[in-house]
Amino acid sequence: MLRTLLVVLAALLPALLTGPAARAATACDAPAVERFGPASVTGAIVGAAVLDGHAYVVTRGLKPPVLADIDLATREVVRSVTLPDGPAAGEPEGGWATAVSGGKVYVGTYPVPDLYSFDPATGAVEHLRSFGKNGGFVWSLAAAPDGTLYAGTYPDGRVREYVPATGEVRDFGVLAQGERYVRAVAADDTYVYAGLLDKAKLVRITRADGTVKELASAATGIGAIAEHGDRVLAASGGALIDMRKDGTDEHRVSLASGSIDMLTVAGDGTVYATSRPDGAVHRYRTGDTAFTKIADPPSPADETRRLHLADDHTLLGFAGSGGVWSLDLGTGRSTFTDLIEAGLPGGPERPQSMLLVNNRAVYVGGHFSMEVRDLRTGERRRFHMPGEPKDLVRRGDKIYAAIYPSGQIVSVDLRTDEVRGVGTLGHGQQRPWDIEYDRVTDKLVVASAPLGAALEGALSVVDPDTGRIDVYEGVIPHQSLMSLSLDPRGGVVYLGGDVLGGGGTPPVAASASVAAFDLRARTVLWQVDPVPGFRTFQDIKVHDGLLYGVYKRDSGSWIAMDLATKTVVRQGKLSGYGELTVHRGRVFVSTFFGGGNAYELGEEAKLLATGLGDEWYTNPQLHFEPGSWRAWALVGRDLARIRLDPRCPPLTVTP
Q: InterPro entries annotated for this entry (predicted)?
């Protein structure tokens, strides 16, 4: 009997060694993580200033941020320094705000709202003050004629005065109830002028006693200010407000299309402005009834971080993508210098988005760029994008990207990398969060939020062939849209809401809603609030009759809602929030916080990996290779391929 049993076992042994359990064990022994270097390399800049024939620019998204010194005669970076950590918790990643005073360059940083100085004579960098906690910004900085500095901050919506000679700081207090952003400042001998983003007001502060006076209100936030002589000028969307400094003799003119990006004023009072999203250059003089376009974009589809008149005939512009251009005002001819090519030390940034195309290439969206890794050759390439690609989707031989801050939809040709504009959402919808492609209707669908103090987002239906965009504002009343998911059968899109909208306005609703929208009839089918008191969905995904949702507020809470009964049948808690994906009949999610984790969602959340890091700029994402358990993602700021086999023990990824 024993001999017979041994014979049977011997016969079965090869099958046991090659069966499912053996294959799972072999898969779990395979390399767990492969890293491929920085996912997105950037030379993007935020702040810029000019002093004595040199330009000083501050990088965006690098840790630590770099302040680079550019010799404007040669257009070469001649030195660079980094901005060290200040005493506040967290590290600076850039500096939107720059100003020159007393022969030094001053920088206001984010996401720690600190003030630094750089002395070109000695090369010394000094941390001067902190204006708040981690998560804040010094959005704007200006020097008065006597050298006193004025900083506009977020999220407290205040202006601070800093005296370089003494280090004294004065806080002018709340400028408008509920305001978060002082997006622009300018100063003269007597007054400080502040542009408020949420409340769309131009206010004047008397430097002597701190008295605050409202000079003007606008339809949208004030994004740029300039002063000259007895006049102050402020940009609000596509409109320019031009008035005397006492608030009288007001003139308003508007661009034919787009919005005003940056302003500067010549000695004779001529105003030069750049526009978004095209990047063209315009001229205005008090009394004109319209802008005059004087040049095509020196850096097409770019933002302008500063304008500066080098002399009576030459306008300098600093492009957010990482460049400096000069424009001959007489001929309209321009030249452009890429700062990385000029010697700016670029580095890895926090990516915006990712897409895997047919196991052929991985596309990673960065700040004003797209980085592509060819999976067949291992080669990398990089090309310009007109902003931040918040989300990517494929249709045929093109990728479509939803762009912030323009609210533009663009296509990228997979064969040539050609980037073309499809259309702009408009309607104040400048924060597109999610884009998908519905094969049944052959349309793109976009979920968006407004910019500034408004609550209602929109669902936009985009015809990728004609560029027609139908925008349905308030499809979930009093909420913006953070996410959407298509019914697998097509024709219906499910929407996840956010009661806070663009921020800065008290919410009306108490709980984030889910709604279903018929793409053929263009009507809302139903709306429910799955969990009372949870205010913001980060992502939703429909699978097998259930709608899975991950909340940002309450952070990390997740649900599975039965679409037939509209009731929550599963609920749990993750380390944080992120993006959902469906692969091989299972639901996965990658999250911020707790070190950066990946889970499978079923009856409960099963941890698959930890230690991925928290370096996404938007949502952590997973992009699985078809037919395998390997997913493309981030480890820190590196592009990585990770084994996420549900049969294997959880991974602990080391930095």
A: Host-pathogen_enzymatic-act, Quinoprotein_ADH-like_sf, WD40/YVTN_repeat-like_dom_sf
Q: How far is CA 352 from the centre of its chain?
A: 7
* Listed residue (142, 146, 425, 414) closest to 277, CA to CA: 425
β-partners of residue 353 are 365
- Element containing residue 15 per DSSP (H, E): helix 2-18
Count CB-CB contacts under 10 A for residue 181.
26
368 in any annotated domain? yes
Q: What is the pLDDT of residue 13?
A: 43
Give me the phi and psi of 238, to 5 degrees please.
-90, 5
Could you tell me if 182 and 175 are in contact, meaning their C-beta atoms sit under 8 angstroms apart? yes
Q: CA nearest 467: which of 435, 494, 443, 448?
A: 443
Tally of domains within the chain: 1
User: In CATH, what number is assigned to the domain containing residue 553?
Assistant: 2.130.10.10
For residue 627, the 8-state DSSP code is T
CA-to-CA dists, residue 314 to 321, 322, 445, angstroms:
21, 20, 44
Write out the DSSP string of 479-515: -EEEEEEE-TTSSEEEEEEETTTTSSS--S-SS--EE
Banded model confidence at residue 24, pLDDT cuts 50, 70, 90: low
Phi then psi for residue 645, to 5 deg, are -80, 120
* Residue 348 placed within a domain: yes
Is 230 a domain residue?
A: no
Report CA torsion sign: 99, 431, 255, 335. positive
Number of other residues whose CB lies within 10 A of the CB of residue 591: 28
Q: What is the pLDDT of residues 68-83, one digit of tens each?
A: 999 999 999 999 999 9
Cis status, amide bond into 646, omega within 30 of 0: no
- Where in the sequence is the domain holding 370, given as residue range(s)? 31-36+344-440+455-481+541-650
- Tens of pLDDT, residues 45-54: 999 999 999 9
Nearest to 342 by CA among 601, 28, 75, 10: 75
Give a yes or no: residue 465 inside a domain: yes
